[in-house]
Amino acid sequence: MIKKPFFGLGKSKLQYSGIKNIEGKDVKEIPPSTRITLMHKSPDGELGELVLSIGDEVRTGQKLNLREIGEEYLTSTATGTITDISHTTEYTGQTFTSVSIEAKPKDLWDDEFEKTGKDTAPENALTFLSCLPGISDLSSFIKTDNPLNTIIINGLDRDLLIATNQIIVKTEAEHLAEGIEYLKKITGVSRIILVVPPSLRMEAEKSGAEVKVIEPVYPDAIPGLLMKRILDNPVPPSKNFEDLGVAFISPEAVVALRTAFVEGKLPVTKVLTVIDKDNRLTCIKARIGTPVRDILSTLNIDVSHGDRLVFGGPMSGQGIYSEDMPILHDTDAIMVQDKSQVNPSGNDPCINCGECVRVCPAKIPVNMLIRLLENGLYEEAAQEYDLLSCVECGLCSYVCEMRIPISHYIMLGKHELPLTEGLEESND
Amino acid sequence: MTNQKLFVSSHAPYWHNKSSLSMKSYNIMLAALPAVIMGIYQYGPPALGVVALSVSTAMIWELIMNYVTKRPASIGDGNAAVIGLLLAMLLPASTPWWTVLIGTFLAIVVGKQIFGGIGCNPLNPALVSIAIILLSWKGLLDFDEALVNYDLGFYMVYPLAALKYLGTSVVSNYSVGDLLMGQYAGAIGSTFGLGLIIGGIYLILRGMIRWEISISFLAGVFVTAFFFNIADSEKYAGPLFHLLTGYTLIGAFFLATEDSSSPVNFIPMLIYGACAGFLTVLIRNIGAFVDGTVFAILMMNIANPLLDKIRPKALGKGIKHA
Question: Which of A229, A325, B14, B266 is deepest in the core (most CB within 10 A)?
């Protein structure tokens, strides 16, 4: 936990962790688990019948179609038998389909992707590659009405204490360069920008992409702010990156593209940073779908009742509820926080001290915004007080003297806003 | 699932910079201590009595209001104590006990709690109370009348009153050193200029108050007094005299900077401070009151919501995309 400095006049600068903070030089391999759980975020609307069933045999790298209609699929990361299929509701009401596989010790690789001739046509990429490690949404690269003109590879990480992206740029610079070529072929985009901290400039220049060096000061590497810094093209509140023809991808996903096309096998392991209770960092490599429990026990990290487990970092991660939760293909970090470090939120109202206003990188009048959000006035919050300009860095809650969960209110506001608008339309 | 561990979950972020309101309140009180101790040293037990009674009754009023409004007790955050302390610093040492009691009632109940408690008060609570006392009991805040029985070995005349009624000839009776060291009659905690400045700088360096407000307030006082002085130096005192007398310094560092009633954006803070400084000197020089700080800051408190509309464009706003 980084406290407010004694002389608090200057803004406190939170730095992204560098690779130097990682314990040990190597990426630690986590042995394969006997039980793998794959999770798929279900789209909104009517869902078709599942085509998978318990008892099905699957192979490593096999594409598992989920439903009769639609194009949802998972990529199996182990060879074995499906033992359980269930639906869970996670944060913000998002439903997930989870498929558990009893894994056999020996991997049998599926060759369907290789048979397609490793075709770099966009449709083929979409049919096979959306579960690559490090990718959160491949369709934003391909299925877009507005063609992309720029892809930004973020070599800095999403949050403090995470070094996943940086370690990929550092250790796999050559593979990254090859991956970028495939990325260009699939998307047809010629302008690829690699954003790195100064310490990785050398490695980044090997990649052949346009290199932009930024100081590793939080929250400058958040996509919304990179748009402004790198492209001088901030996203208007009513639009998203795709509307401006820009997409973001992690270095790991680019390297995974290269692995898929060069080796003909879909990559099934994910690199992550594990942050222990003393904020020590360990870089690991584990199969997608490995339960958090197995990773923590391999690293001898003990968790107990009342601690906190987070996917992601301290400023923007998402809390998880169980050690059985598997790592997903876009999980960059696991953070363990001791119960003594858990900060409860306050119940008190805003005192208008203005700390949040001064720390906000998006220049939102947070002091006014929070008053509207607390009272559920989401539309007014969006129109008058810039709710939708928020880049979700979490700094407002971090500095709040009254410990108001401001980020939480903002997340709720963004979630509720389209719902209330839809309600009004149906009333009309 | 008997051995299932339960984890604490909430929305990000999971870190906090450990700042808190109680920490801020205690620091404000700490910063005010030099001036308060000097006042107690000069005026003795009556001053101590006023300070102690003011702080304690402010906290009691807060507790009573917590009980009446069925809210959790909030005296632990130190805000009521700060208001009580600041009120005492604005009163003369001879203030009768009932005035202190009414004063803290006006500050805590009328100034703060009826608006909904901390963060909801549109005006500075201590100043609301002082303004009502000033208007209701004429003699109580007339420092020459209130302190008539004291002789502390220095020129026992309240400088601003002397200036108002006797003209600029009195300015030479006060040296800058005297004004800085509190060697003149006045309120308990607002005469020791050096102590207030040290306290203010401490708060600014710790980031507890916004320097923009303090500095622009002082600049506003200085510039306005300077021009008055240039225009007619026979009639109007110089800027340094205005800076170091009356409630100017306590106003700059402790009153104008009250969180809830002051703006938070950069330009509004400058306007707020500068206008409050300007009004202060305006009221002193051509208004009816001896000291203008109280009403000047209250006036700007009222303008605060409007001023804070001046703000930078948020990320992505106001940009036209072809």
Answer: B14
